[in-house]
Specification:
By secondary structure, this protein is mostly helical. The protein has one domain. Helix content is 72%, strand content 1%. It contains 22 helices and 4 strands. The strands form 2 sheets. It has a two-stranded antiparallel ribbon. A two-stranded antiparallel ribbon has the order 3-4. Strand 1 and strand 2 form a beta hairpin. Helix 14 runs parallel beside helix 20. The longest helix is centred in the C-terminal third of the chain and has 54 residues. The protein is globular, with a radius of gyration of 24 Å.
Length: 571
């Protein structure tokens, strides 16, 4: 009988093309780079060190040991990992967007508004009880089976506590909103966060080595299954219960997929609890503040606007976050591993942080600006006439997400430097700016006031986090801002092109409108890329996202194109 926990899942395999495999599945490195590893672990006696990871034969002795890589190799692996994550996240967001399109046609704004209110409580409680389990394991140089068992136990305990906390809050929360229907909705939705804590911790072993294919596959299976469940329920029920089905189905499918792709035999253990306890105090406070910051707009608006208005705001908010979830998070995700490897090299760390920050802005800014400029035809095409009220909200919310791009890598930097208090400071700064402005804006001006409050708080928080970054690694605020001048100039060209071409879409509909949006967006992105490339060349071709794109994409494509031609000429 096949047993997942008996499989050699701890023997991580490096990238292809590094020589023949040994008996453990690892490949010998191309060069004899020096290796460092924790005294509590040992390399596999049966094979070679596989590039950046020692092959593991005994899970009780060692599960994963890092070996530092060179600068170019590290940057290349980071870019490759980010590319995999972006590709996978784009597909999952496409599935989510497809689900939103179908559900928006079958359901009403009131249905989305009711679910938004109920999910606000679940999201806040889940964020408050968030533990940095994955981040702790990634930041540690070596982990063992006991670390994984402790991680699983903490996740399971957290999930159970989440469900109980949500259930206990159901009645007072429903009473606050004067809606008794919320009680049973919250009781049902409270199961989802409990299930999320039961996934396999084995996926973290691959994430430590910037290998995300299994995680991407699990995410794809999860989102696709959720799409099928929610759409089928919407077709049958035609009310908000369909959204609840999709929410609960998502973690259920995730559990099955995670164990299939990263087999692990669950064991209850708290042997390595002190390792996680060091981060618990700071991160718990940070997560509490993050939850308030994230959901305060919906909490406040839910009390002062109608469910239909809240539904429009929620859909616009979800659409505005699609670029952040599909592009920015996959880019930021590998940075914790990268920063942890070079944490003791402050000059190199400072350079890497500035380059990462500029890369995040260079990728995220054109997408958010494009979403802002093309929101009107996109919403009309995708959601229909009953969602036209979401257009101005989507436009302005997209702009509010641009300033945070400048400081997106900060959380990874703080964790890599073992400064979890930096996360608390970041969340506290956002809270100080956002919540008072949100209360005043939402109470007096409704949705418009909430959007303005978010814009002011986003800009102010970004500046303050830059100051905090200077204290961590010594990079001045001026240097952080000036490093983005090429992206800012190219973004201005993008906005000018889209502003000039968007009126051409006014009289189009259906397939013609879809093709027109794609054509206009493509021209705008081409102008953006051209300006970015020209300014990079004019600046002396410095290291950054432009040089990485040139080296990893353009040069390789040209080499492959020239290869067959060279062979034909030699023949």
């Amino acid at each position: 009988m096949w047993a997942p926990w008996r499989q050699p899942w701890l023997a991580l395999r490096p990238a292809r093309g590094r020589g023949p495999k040994n008996r453990c599945g690892a490949r010998p490195p191309l060069s004899s780079a020096s290796t460092t590893w924790s005294p509590s672990t040992r390399p596999c006696s049966k094979g070679w060190p596989g590039g950046e990871t020692w092959c593991v034969a005994d899970a009780k002795t060692a599960a994963s040991v890092r070996v530092p890589a060179g600068g170019e190799a590290l940057g290349g692996r980071t870019a490759g990992s980010a590319a995999w994550l972006i590709g996978g996240r784009l597909f999952t967001k496409f599935v989510e967007f497809l689900s939103l399109l179908v559900l928006a046609q079958l359901l009403t704004p009131e249905d989305f508004g009711v679910i938004a209110i109920a999910m606000t409580l679940v999201t806040i409680v889940e964020a408050v009880f968030e533990l940095p389990i994955t981040q702790v394991l990634i930041a540690r140089q070596a982990i063992s089976q006991r670390h994984l068992d402790t991680a699983f136990t903490l996740s399971a305990l957290r999930g159970g506590a989440l469900t109980l906390a949500v259930w206990a809050s159901a009645v007072p929360f429903a009473h606050f909103y004067r809606n008794d229907t919320l009680v049973w909705m919250i009781l049902a939705l409270g199961v989802a966060p409990g299930l999320r804590g039961m996934g396999s911790p084995g996926l973290v072993l691959y994430a430590r080595e910037l290998k995300y294919r299994r995680e991407i596959a699990a995410e794809l299976v999860c989102k696709t299954g959720s799409l099928v469940c929610s759409v089928a329920a919407a077709w049958w029920l035609r009310d908000y219960r369909a959204l609840m089905v999709g929410i609960v189905a998502t973690p259920t499918i995730w559990i099955l997929a995670s164990y299939a792709l990263a087999p692990y035999r669950p064991r209850i253990s708290l042997a390595e609890w002190p390792l996680f306890a060091d981060f618990l105090g700071w991160t718990t406070g940070a997560q509490l503040l993050a939850a308030i910051n994230w959901q305060c707009d919906r909490l406040i608006l839910g009390r002062f606007v109608t469910p239909a208005q809240l539904g429009i705001y929620s859909v616009a908010n979800d659409l505005s976050y699609v670029p952040e979830q599909a592009l920015i998070r996959p880019i930021v995700r590998p940075l914790l591993s990268v920063f942890a490897l070079i944490a003791d090299q402050r000059a190199r760390l400072a350079t890497a942080y500035v380059q990462a920050s500029n890369a995040v802005l260079a990728i995220g800014a054109p997408v958010l600006l494009g979403l802002c400029m093309l929101a009107q035809p996109a919403v009309a095409l995708a959601l229909g006439d009953k969602w036209l009220g979401a257009i101005p909200v989507l436009q302005w919310l997209s702009l509010t997400l641009v300033p945070p791009l400048l400081t997106a890598p900060y959380s990874s930097l703080a964790m890599a430097l073992n400064r979890p208090q930096g996360l608390l400071g970041q969340r506290a700064a956002e809270l100080v700016f956002k919540v008072p402005l949100m209360v005043v804006g939402a109470v007096w001006y409704g949705i418009e006031g909430a959007v303005v409050a978010r814009a002011i708080s986003a800009f102010s928080t970004a500046l303050l986090v830059m100051v905090m970054t200077r204290r961590l690694i010594g990079v001045s605020v001026q240097h952080q801002l000036l490093a983005t001048w090429r992206t800012v100039l190219a973004s201005g060209g993008l906005v000018a092109v889209l502003y000039a071409l968007s009126p051409l879409l006014a009289d189009l509909a259906g397939l013609e409108l879809a093709l027109g949006i794609g054509l206009v967006a493509g021209i705008g992105m081409a102008a953006y890329a051209l300006i970015l490339a020209l300014t990079w060349h004019q600046a002396g071709r410095p290291a950054g996202i432009e040089s990485m794109a040139y080296d990893r994409v353009l040069v390789r494509v040209l080499a492959r194109l020239r290869g067959p031609c060279a062979e034909q000429r030699s023949a």
